[in-house]
Amino acid sequence: MAVNIEYRGEIAVVTLDNPPVNALSRAVRQALFDATEALDADPSVKAVVLACAGRTFIAGADVGEFEKPPEPPHLPDLVERIERAEKPWIAAIHGSALGGGFEVALACRFRVAVPSANIGLPEVRLGIVPGAGGTVRLPRLAGVEMAVDMVTTGKPLVAPEAAATGVIDALIEDDLVAGAVAFARQVLGRPLPNRLRDRAISAPSDTFWDAAAKAVAARARGEEAPPRALACLRRAAEQDFDAAIAFERETFLALRGSAQAAALRHVFFAERAATRPPELAGTVPVSIRSAAVIGGGTMGVGIAAALRDANLPVTLVERDAAALGRGVSRVRGIFDSAVKRGRIAADVAAERMAGVTATTDYAGLADVDLVIEAVFEDLEVKRDVFQRLAAVCRYDAVLATNTSYLDPETIAEGIGGPERFLGLHFFSPAHVMKLLEIVPAKATAPEVLATGFALARMLGKIPVRAGTCDGFIGNRMLKVTRAQAERLLLSGATPAAVDAAMRGFGLPMGPFEAQDLGGLDIAALQRQTARTRGETPFAPIADRLCAQERFGQKSGGGWYDYAPGDRTPRPSDTVSAIIAEAAEGYPRREWDEASIVSMIVWPMVNEGARILEDKTALRASDVDLVKIHGYGFPRWRGGPMHYAEAHGLDRVIGALDAVSSDGLADPACEFLLCAAARGGFSACIR
Ligand code: T1G
Ligand code: NAD
User: What span, in angstroms and rounded, lies between the C-alpha atoms of 581 and 457?
Assistant: First the structure.
């Protein structure tokens, strides 16, 4: 860590260098504080430019310090010191100015940035609120409405937008520091604008606050920080500066030690660790400059769109012209709807489509670097595809399957060059869902596995290595969740009550609504395959629904009934009758929301423990990322494994034992008992 001061005539340039992201650690705060004091005392200095070395401006407070009590100089003191500096400070921003980094920039009299920079206050994404004046100074600069949007969503603003709204005073096209020094010289000749603390704030109407509170609560779905951030902004609009600052700090310190903040920090660091698994350190991935997708169905078109979004030329292969035509128009449909939603411009959509080559001829794949297969979930169909790929593709091309349940080993059995094969399990819709399960087969070469992780970084996905088993990590746990959900129905709960409880827990939808959306037929196919393997999957009610062709929204009815053209789930008498018939002989119980949640979440954790025990997953945080990014488990609970550890593993085991005696769940597995005894899952990983 270094803070260097260089003098360009009467302008001092303070450069912070604290890799990787210039976080405001205690040492950085002290050094910047000292620099402010020294420069204020130096009569030769008329203005100060604050810049950062490396890839970004200050990306915030050092999140790694949050496990420890805050130490002086506290960030608000540094921010206050810079704001009252005798000489005007100019923040010169590149990369990201986030959280405490942007609060330091708000303390400066001016902010300049390169066009590619972004600024923001993402603290709510870490379960906290800005703690160094962000909720009080930003509304004085950007107005309350804009501040409410930025702070309660945590969404950053790109520099051109910030410049258009006056949050950034100037965009610097070329050399940032030189441009900032020139800017400083210009402003020295003019009256300086007031410090933000001295600027007035126009308080919006009560109706504004009521509407904002409703919108924030609807989005938060149980998260504490966004509504608390809104309360800070309201204080800033309705009270004097110092009172609002004190309220913000109090709120920040209260949330900093909260369970939600701890959970969101866990996810923050888990996401960053996931992209660089230690077991692949030093392994060089195969370079991917072109790709192909076999199968232009639900998954194939999403995968093709995701590859195009990463600027990879894509060849889409289908079995016949008709299917190919459908596939191409579905890919086009994805980009057209992105244009409609204002996500991309029409010319970008056209450029995306221009990069898609459509064919039914495998010969066109002789020179692609990566092929992802997404054809029917049928072993023989997939084996045939890989035999053909192994024959036409380059020996160093990476060949991947998107299978959900089939064993990658059997799919690739007998192909030439098995070391170039692996599973890449995307989630639907593949151009939206962030999760990518990466499934190495026994022969997969380390550099090919590393290519899966490199591809995830290219596509902006969260990669998780998963071992080979039925359903890998995510779908294996989903099977347990679905079985538990059925056990609840057999013992007296209703689909609506179970779904309401899980939505109350923070999921976007309950297990029955989710099945109706995705279709009950996919899991039915999987159970059929499992039964041919001699297994006994537990789905007594779903089997009955499928026997009556109740496959969900696509067939007008599943766990719920649906009116034509309407996706609103309606409780179904037919389903109640089917449940009653299946439940004969089962003991009935009263289920409240808390006990329903326990019946779903703790068996999920138990299966997660088994997955760690048999090394299908290497880290408990990987299991958390799979459930958060693939199955909607609430991020602010940290994922099931973190949530269980925070809840107390002994209590989890107790809850499992309480229902397992009635056959309503399996008792705690060895690995869970070990984790409880040793204080956590990581202590039992061998
Ligand atoms: N503190 C500590 N470490 C951090 C960090 C931070 N704020 N931000 C990133 N890192 C580490 C990260 O763990 C990784 O480490 C490496 O830097 C590269 O990160 C009072 C209290 C800036 C957009 O929420 O959004 O200020 O894995 O892989 O993709 O109001 O990092 O290499 O060991 O993500 O180029 C608010 C968080 C803090 C921003 C760069 N700030 N960071 O993305 O790299 S709260 C944030 C990011 C706050 C005040 C409050 C991104 C990035 P490692 P990376 P990237
Ligand atoms: P789908 O039925 O929508 O699409 C499959 C496509 O493959 C069809 O368009 C078909 O014409 C094409 N196809 C079949 N045989 C072919 C061949 N020999 N050559 C070229 N194209 C061929 O299926 P889907 O839902 O997209 O699933 C595809 C794969 O992805 C399956 O293995 C499935 O398990 C897996 N998957 C599905 C989901 C999901 O939610 N649908 C999620 C993850 C993984």
Answer: 50
CA-based radius of gyration for the chain = 28
| DSSP letter assigned to residue 584 | T
Report the C-alpha gap between 437 and 380 in whole angstroms. 23
**Angle, nearest 10°, between helix axes 144-153 and 134-142?**
140
Give the active site residues: 103, 123
d(C-alpha 683, C-alpha 336), whole Å: 49
- Closest listed residue to residue 120, CA positions, set 140, 145, 95: 95
For 660-671, what is the mean pLDDT? 90
CA of 390 to the centre of ligand 2 (A): 19
Q: For 246-302, what is each residue's pLDDT tens digit?
A: 999 999 999 999 999 999 999 999 999 998 888 899 999 999 999 999 999 999 999
Distance between CA atoms of residues 490 and 485, nearest Å: 9
pLDDT grade for 522, boundaries at 50, 70 and 90: confident
| Pocket probe mutation, ligand 2, options 373, 382, 404, 405, max atoms within 8 Å of Cβ | 404
User: How would you write 444-462 as a 3-class SS string?
Assistant: CCHHHHHHHHHHHHHHCCE
DSSP letters for 113-133: E-TT-EEE--GGGGTS--SSS
Query: What is the per-residue pLDDT for 93?
Result: 98
Kindly report, residue by residue over 542-562, the tens digit of the pLDDT.
999 999 999 999 999 999 999
Rounded Cα–Cα distance for residues 369 and 399 (Å): 9
